[in-house]
Write a structure and sequence with these properties.
Layout lengths: L1 H20 L7 E6 L10 E8 L5 E10 L7 E7 L1 E2 L6 E2 L17 E3 L2 E7 L5 E2 L4 E6 L6 E8 L14 E7 L5 E10 L2 E2 L3 E10 L7 E8 L4 E9 L5 E7 L8 E2 L11 E10 L5 E2 L10 E9 L8 E4 L17 H4 L3
Parallel strand pairs: 10-13, 13-23
Antiparallel strand pairs: 1-12, 2-6, 2-11, 3-9, 3-10, 3-12, 4-8, 4-11, 5-7, 13-22, 14-21, 15-20, 16-19, 16-22, 17-18, 17-20
Length: 338
């Protein structure tokens, strides 16, 4: 009886595959995740809006089509969450101490299981993932909600009563994919001294018994960033460039520079070369007067789940540098020049 049931299951899967080949199972659809005509009332405001993903089936996001311009939005992040940071339709998710009264503190995008699925800035174009690769959400995924975050650095365009619907059109399919996408975000804390060139560096070891295949990278700083570079470091301290970019060019995901696989005990590292002509210190923070050092690594795993490690952050300067972290053969010149 068990054997017969197994054969029936196999036949059912074959029939389903045949049916899907000629139906919408293989089609790509669009979902609009946009700000619901918001009107930001404060410069440097971050607003979030959520959508609950249908828990009855898996969805695979295979593309991201931005609906935004840098004249309105400083940047956009799309988070996958186990639980959103608020039950409101829209909330202030600046994660800053700024608040108008004691009961109006800013909240984070995700209350549980936060991970970044997509990032946009500086008029970056549409991103379509390689064939067969997708971010799994809903169903049996840990991603139960999608949260759109938009950073409004300036609000002059809203003073006459205009509203905003910046966001992203998600391209998705119901077709099961065996190459599941993930993002590892590398970044630092730290400070940049006045009138200096400063390296903000980070590195993390892959501890999980998985093989990941990098496919794209994205760099992000504010105005002081000159070069952001990312590397794969093998156990013998061979450095392989994953990506390098002037972060003030369109902040889209670019194809990886070297096609490599990353395995357990390899390290992923990033450096932001910052040049300050300011007379004061600059700190990591969310406003345009602050700085950020981010290197996003997009990858996929085959017939496996993405890394449970989503972030790789260090204290940054003056507490953390590659040279003090036991790394050798550091490509100093290459990592800071284009």
């Amino acid at each position: 009886m068990k054997k017969m049931r197994g054969k029936c299951t196999i036949v059912s899967y074959i029939l389903l595959a045949i049916l899907c080949e000629f139906t919408e199972c293989y089609s790509v659809k669009k979902y609009s995740l946009l700000m619901p005509n918001v009107r930001p009332n404060r410069e440097e405001m971050y607003l979030c809006t959520p959508v609950k993903v249908d828990p009855s089936q898996n969805y695979y996001i295979v593309g991201f089509e931005p609906n935004a311009t840098m004249a309105t939005a400083h940047h956009i992040l799309l988070y996958g969450c186990g639980k959103p940071g608020s039950s409101k339709d829209v909330w202030d998710c600046s994660n800053m101490e700024h608040h108008t009264n004691k009961n109006d503190k800013a909240m984070v995008p995700c209350a549980e299981d936060a991970q970044i699925l997509y990032a946009w800035a500086r008029d970056a174009p549409t991103l379509i993932l390689p064939t067969g690769v997708g971010f799994k959400v809903g169903g049996d995924s840990s991603i139960k909600y999608l949260v759109l975050q938009v950073h409004y650095a300036h609000i002059d365009q809203f003073k006459d009563g205009r509203t905003d619907d910046s966001g992203v059109f998600l391209h998705y399919t119901l077709r099961p994919l065996n190459k599941l996408a993930g993002i590892l975000l590398l970044g630092t804390s730290g400070a940049i001294p006045p009138r200096s060139t400063t390296y903000m560096e980070t590195a993390c070891t892959i501890r999980e018994n998985k093989t990941i295949y990098p496919i794209a990278y994205r760099t992000h700083t504010h105005s002081l960033g000159k070069v952001v570079s990312g590397y794969l470091i093998k156990p013998d301290f061979t450095w392989i460039e994953l990506g390098k970019r002037d972060p003030l060019t369109p902040q889209m995901f670019y194809p990886i520079h070297n096609k490599v696989s990353v395995r357990q005990n390899d390290q992923i590292a990033a450096r932001c070369t910052m040049q300050s002509t300011r007379d004061s210190w600059t700190y990591i923070g969310v406003t345009k007067a602050d700085e950020m050092c981010n290197f996003y690594l997009m990858y996929y795993v085959e017939n496996d789940e993405p890394l449970s490690m989503k972030y790789c952050f260090t204290f940054g300067p003056p507490k953390y540098y590659w040279k003090d972290a036991g790394l050798f053969n550091i490509p100093d010149i290459e990592a800071s020049s284009l």
